[in-house]
Amino acid sequence: MRYGATTYAAAFACLGLLALPLSSGAQNVDYAHSQISFVSVQMKVPVEAVFRKFTAQISFDPAKPEASKAQIEIDLASFDIGNDEINNDVKDKNWFDTRNFPAAKFVATGVRALGPGRYEARGPLTIKGRTNDIIAPFTVKADGGSQIFEGGFAIRRLQYNLGEGVWKDTDTVADEVQIKFRIYVSGKPPPKK
Amino acid sequence: MADNNRGRYTAVAISLHWLVFALVLAAWSLGLYMVDLPLSPQKLKYFSWHKWIGVTIFLFATARLAGRFVHPAPPLPLSVPAWQRSAAYVSYALLYVLILAIPISGWLFSSASGVPVVYFGVLPLPNPVEKDKELAEFLKQIHIFLNWTLFVIVCVHVLAALKHHIVDRDDVLARMLPIIKPRRE
């Protein structure tokens, strides 16, 4: 099975049709309908930003949630808060340091059901070379043959060394950052061109 | 108001006038200074303070405008020619319009930038517009334009007041000053 999927992926990659490496049983993510965003609080003002680029590999069966697998990689340079000055500054060493740490990565190592349509994923989240385990509650809604995963969790930015130097001060930019995700997994097979 | 105060603004009007002036001066200078700073926690603080001052100006200016209906402004001296009266009324009207429109344009600009205004970090104001980069840039230009217009009108206002005091030697400036007593007529 694993071998089969790898061959399948390799075949597509060879054809140059596939940008993402597919893991075993991975589903097709519709990025146009997916979003990873976060809300940071500056001077008691909540400000939302999004990551324009990320890749997600999700394998989820509502009948067997504990067998789920997920891996999400975020291109941190695709950060967009709607202000060019801030977009550029957060790539610097004090914040994401995207030259040395271009991506953030989350791997779900355990998923369990909390109730009807409600689950939680646990696993390591790595940002800027620092890894902490997080718990992300999420819901799954069916939309035709597609699935919509929606959830959020909070991180403490200083645990990931986000905001060095003068930015360590949490009076101006709060330590807690809310991360939100909405991932649309299409029920259709990957488009064939 | 007692008769001996005839020809002067009320104490409340005088207080609000100078309070609004001090706040406008503070917000105006802070705004000009903060925009070119590199991004830092200090810059974020200045932006918040600038917005809080702006909201305060709006509130005090509204109170002052409302006060004018209760206690109309003292009439200009009869010696003032008609064209100067008209010019004075136009500049007063423009000052009120700008002092109220500038905080509104700043609030809209902030909202379009995706940064809600939270008055003193406690009271969140509603967001009148959605986050929109192009709209934000447009509102930023409006905010800057209105501020430079205010700068010009304030200069005219100050020069006119000084001209009344020094050249015409009338009570037009004195009636708005808390200390100097009007000259005897």
Can you put this structure into words, describing what you see?
The complex is a heterodimer of chains A (193) and B (185). By secondary structure, chain A is mostly beta strands. Chain A has one domain (26-186): Lipid/polyisoprenoid-binding, YceI-like (Lipocalin). Chain A is built from two helices and twelve strands, in the order H-E-E-E-E-E-E-H-E-E-E-E-E-E. In chain A, strands 1, 2, 3, 4, 5, 6, 7, 8, 9, 10, 11 and 12 form a twelve-stranded antiparallel beta sheet that branches. In chain A, strand 10 and strand 11 form a beta hairpin. The model of chain A is unreliable at 8-24 (pLDDT under 50). Chain B has one domain (3-176). In chain B, helix 2 (41-70) packs across helix 3. The longest helix of chain B has 36 residues, at 133-168. The radius of gyration of chain B is 19 Å and the shape is elongated. Chains A and B meet through strand 3 and helix 2 of A and helix 2 of B.
* Helix-residue proportion of chain A: 10-25%
Got a strand count of chain B?
Answer: 2
Question: What is the total number of structural domains of chain B?
Answer: 1
Q: Which protein chains are joined by the largest interface, and how many residues does each one contribute?
A: A-B, 19 and 19 residues
CATH architecture of chain A: Beta Barrel
Rg from alpha-carbon coordinates of chain B: 19 Å
Which secondary-structure class do the elements of chain A indicate?
Answer: mainly beta
Low-confidence stretches of chain A: 8-24
Q: Largest sheet of chain A at a glance?
A: 12 strands, antiparallel
What is the CA-based Rg of chain A, rounded?
A: 18 Å
Strand content of chain A: over 45%
Order of helices and strands of chain A: HEEEEEEHEEEEEE
Give the count of structural domains of chain A: 1
Strand order of the largest sheet of chain B: 1-2
Give the N-to-C terminal Cα separation of chain A.
25 Å
Low-confidence stretches of chain B: none
CATH class of chain A: Mainly Beta
Give the overall silhouette of chain B: elongated
CATH superfamily of chain A: Lipid/polyisoprenoid-binding, YceI-like
Cα shape of chain A: globular
